[in-house]
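Hey,
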Amino acid sequence: MNKTILATAILIAIVGVALSSLHAADDSVVIPAKISAADMTGSIFDRPNMIETKHGSNTTLDVTTLLSSDRKFASGMYESQKVRFEVTEPYGVDEFMYFIKGSVTLTSSDGSVQVINAGEAVTIPKEWTGIWDTEGYTKIWVIYSEDGSGL
């Protein structure tokens, strides 16, 4: 009887290890991409996938939280210091942005001006051209690129 109990226990342990290994190797598990309240205070930029880029005196921090399997849709958080640049070619992607800190002034090619402040959102169409001007900001972004080339 003890041999039966021991054999059963060993079998259960082997099956358990096999199943846990199977689950760990399963890359098909899909979970939602969350940006927590703590992330929004800046801790998201401590993640290992954070990308820091310097353009002259401007430093940006960018974390992608989701990239769709077809590479056409992505989301994340971005922080930029003071910068001004002219978008002379179409923007290239449709982008929704929600500003957590700071603001941006968008001057469209026709001269119309929109100021987007912290707590506000804007969606920029892929065809947009104009001037992007900011003293600095942190935003949550969501991008759609029909052919996936803009991501």
